[in-house]
Specification:
single chain, globular
Length: 252
């Protein structure tokens, strides 16, 4: 029942080259069982307001660049869709061609992992979960009542948006489960508790940030250690992970 996994956060909205790449190499040293994201993997900030630039060639180039980085990871990497990844139906089509469904689940040991698509439909201001996705979620939860713990991953921390009806439905569906939720989007670390469940909004792993630590803005990975089916969450700053070679300690 014991295992470890890592979570990486936003890599867009003004991507700082080299940071996410550094995270992948450091994760290879830490050797989690797998790595999962919370979306915003490719950067589309520079053309989000100009629809004429939403061409297939550019979208393919961005994904090729990102996938070449994740290929260096020595453990499985799980993709989560963010608003920079699926801004419109064209980008949604690119996602589907590469990765299949925009929401899915898997089981590991005795735990249930659920990946939601908060961009369903694309372009929604505060995120949205379509009726088909909500029905799917209900079915998956009903089919996995014996899961020792349930982890949910999505891009937008929808619990922060006042009176978000989609999130209220999700809370109703998960009310009686052992549950932890992770999201990104705001590039600022936060933690909330509702119904006895912990909800985490992660900071960045290379995305736009002022890197003001006191404001919860930093580059990090979240490390989840599951022991006797109970998760323990720690946050590791990227600049706190070093190799044993003295040259690696030199500030670039």
């Amino acid at each position: 029942k014991d295992f470890n996994f890592a979570i990486v956060s936003d890599n867009s909205g003004g991507r700082r080259p080299g940071v996410f790449e550094d995270a992948i190499q450091k994760l290879n040293k830490l050797k989690p069982d797998f790595v999962i994201s919370v979306g915003d993997l490719i950067d589309t900030k520079d053309y989000k307001l100009d629809s004429s630039k939403f061409d297939d060639k550019l979208i393919k180039e961005r994904w090729l660049e990102f996938n070449n980085i994740t290929k260096q990871l020595k453990v499985p990497f799980f993709y989560v869709a963010g608003n920079n990844d699926i801004r419109n139906s064209k980008m949604e089509t690119h996602w589907s061609k590469q990765f299949g469904a925009t929401y899915y689940h898997f089981k590991y040991k005795t735990a249930l992992f659920i990946v939601l698509n908060s961009e369903d439909k694309p372009g929604s201001k505060y995120g949205e979960i379509s009726d088909p996705q909500m029905n799917w979620l209900k079915t998956i939860l009903e089919e996995n009542t014996s899961a020792s713990w349930t982890f949910i991953f999505l891009h937008r921390p929808m619990w922060l948006y006042k009176n978000n009806q989609d999130w209220k439905k999700i809370e109703d569906l998960t009310m009686n489960r052992k549950l932890t939720v992770f999201a990104g989007h705001h590039h600022t670390y936060s933690k909330a508790t509702a119904n006895g469940h912990n909800y985490y909004g992660l900071a960045t792993t290379g995305g736009a940030s002022s890197l003001k630590f006191e404001k919860g803005q930093f580059d990090h990975i979240s490390w989840v250690s599951v022991s006797d089916s109970i998760p323990q969450i720690s946050n590791i700053l990227l600049n706190g992970i070093w190799g044993d070679n003295p040259s690696s300690l030199e500030k670039k």
